[in-house]
Amino acid sequence: MLRLVLDTNVALDWLVFADLRFAPIAALLAAGEGEVLTTAECRAEFERVLRYPVLKLEVHRQAEVAANYQARTREIATLPAPSGLPRCRDADDQKFLVLATAAGANWLLTHDRALLALARRLPGPSPTRIGTPMHLLAARRAATS
């Protein structure tokens, strides 16, 4: 089973914007071929971002999306950071990196350039890859061809 960690913006693409680029991953998750891992801290950030005025989500829609997130993710306890883990420039991103690497997720999905740049600096060998949803889909296509 594919184990994923989604940063907040990718989770928004999935559950708020229904971004078609995420549709193949959503289908994989719906088919039970993968799971999205989260922690209380990651979930709290997602719920906080749902309240941002720029998203223009009414209160009932915020609650609906938050409940959907909770139902479609598996929340695990916060784990200690593996030794040698690089520090994110944006401290808010560190929790996603720690979760992905400590839980042995296959992928941390993000669009954040600084976080993507850390992919080359993970302590090896790490089962976790950092990439965009498109990177994950390309890797899956390459593995099956």
At a glance:
This protein is an alpha/beta fold and 145 residues long. The protein has helices spanning 8-15, 23-30, 40-50, 59-72, 91-102, 113-117, 133-144, and strands at 2-6, 34-38, 73-75, 107-109, 129-131.
If you had to describe this structure to a student in words, what would you say it looks like?
The structure is a single chain. The chain has one domain (2-144): 5'-nuclease (Rossmann fold). The chain is 48% helix and 13% strand. It contains 7 helices and 5 strands, in the order βααβααβαβαβα. It has a 5-stranded parallel β-sheet, with helices on both faces. Helix 6 links the parallel strand 4 and strand 5. The longest helix is centred in the middle third of the chain and has 14 residues, at 59-72.
Helix content: 40-55%
Topology-level CATH name: Rossmann fold
Strand residues, percent: 5-15%
What is the number of independent domains? 1
Largest sheet, strands/sense/barrel:
5 strands, parallel
Shape annotation: globular
- Supply the CATH superfamily name: 5'-nuclease
Number of helices: 7
How would you spell out the order of helices and strands? EHHEHHEHEHEH
Rg, please? 15 Å
The termini sit apart by 19 Å
Mean pLDDT: 94
As residue ranges, the low-confidence spans are: none
Helix-strand makeup class: alpha/beta
